[in-house]
Amino acid sequence: MTNAALKEKSLEHMLARELRALDEQTEQDTDTEFYLAIEQLLSEHGLSAQQAAEILVVAHPDAGTDRTRPLTPLKVFRNPYTREVVKSRGFNHQTLNEWRKRHGRLTVQTWRIK
């Protein structure tokens, strides 16, 4: 490579680093502005951050849950021999697996209460 090409590459890398640093600074400035605006709003209304959080939780109880599918229904089984009750949402329950090995999958399914 020629000397000019090396200098050009060096300048490109330096400019790219400066642009990344500038982007990070802009993001930090935006975050700081938002935080200060929230603090000012809280002080205007005489609220603490904890009180504001409690208000938001009461107003939107489902906010913040990342669940995209409904919860698997709870299944309850009762062993007729031991009267032991097992509650499970899935099929990988240790006690249920032991029952299935001993009595068979179809038999254990008949023990389902709910």
UniProtKB/TrEMBL annotation:
What InterPro entries does this protein map onto?
A: MvaT_DBD
Residues forming the MvaT DNA-binding domain are: 75-111
Name of the molecule in the record: MvaT DNA-binding domain-containing protein
The organism is: Hydrocarboniclastica marina
